[in-house]
Design brief:
elongated
Length: 236
């Protein structure tokens, strides 16, 4: 099947499946110019006839399509939920989105999404930083002491995700998952992102743990170093 152009395919999809919707946007990698051979169409639909939100996947017009269907209440609730978890997926889609079905509500939602993206996630409290510092320290000790290659790989995976979260959240920045871990780090500090990628690549390629250990210690040092002795939680 020949692929229809992204915008044309998205417009046809919305017309066929949501003919009475108030508004629709095309977001995701397509509108950022980051399309790959496996990219899908991310479409946000606003339909006030629906009592609640849902997400559904389709194949249409030669494209895999992910549709995120909301009304004005649920989309704002998801904006807040994404903000609280520090992964602004929906605000980002709305902010970047190309209108497929226009409506006066779209500029208002885009403005709200842009404000959320600009302000960043809620700041971590000192207690949260201490807790995350402890768990990152604990994982690092497990990594250093591990003599099983398989276990070390998955400890490294956990450290990679926790380290990216720690660095970004203590600096009031958005985090990511999967490919967005690296993208979020690059948006924050390209030099640190390069160090991060290089450290884990050296471990995965040659089993050299030292760059990962050095990187984690350099991050923790600014917050008092590794934490074990004296850490307590839940004690009355």
């Amino acid at each position: 099947m020949i692929k229809t152009s992204a915008i044309e395919a998205a417009k046809r999809f919305v017309l066929e499946n949501f003919p009475t919707c108030q508004a629709a946007l095309l977001g995701g990698s397509i509108v950022r110019g980051e399309e790959t051979p496996t990219s899908d169409l991310d479409i946000v639909v606003l339909d006030e006839q629906l009592p609640t939100e849902y997400r559904e996947s389709f194949i249409g017009h030669g494209w895999p399509i992910e549709v995120f269907v909301h009304n004005q209440v649920t989309i704002r609730r998801y904006f807040q939920s994404d903000c609280n978890r520090a992964r602004p997926s929906l605000p980002k889609m709305v902010s970047e989105g190309i209108p497929l079905v226009n409506h006066p509500i779209l500029p208002i939602l885009k403005k709200e999404a842009n404000t959320i993206l600009r302000d960043g996630p809620p700041r971590w409290a000192a207690e949260t930083i201490t807790l995350k510092r402890y768990f990152l320290s604990d994982a690092l000790e497990d990594f250093i002491g591990s003599t099983d290659r398989g276990e070390s790989i998955f400890i490294a995976n956990s450290i990679g995700e926790s380290l990216h979260e720690f660095v970004l959240r203590v600096n009031g920045r958005w985090i990511g998952s999967s490919k967005w871990i690296v993208r979020s780090l690059k948006e924050y500090d390209p030099h640190f992102a390069d160090e991060y990628i290089d450290a884990f690549e050296q471990f995965y390629r040659s089993d050299d743990k030292k760059p990962v250990v050095k990187l984690v210690d350099s991050v923790l040092q600014a917050h008092g170093g590794r934490l074990f002795e004296g850490f307590s939680i839940g004690k009355s």
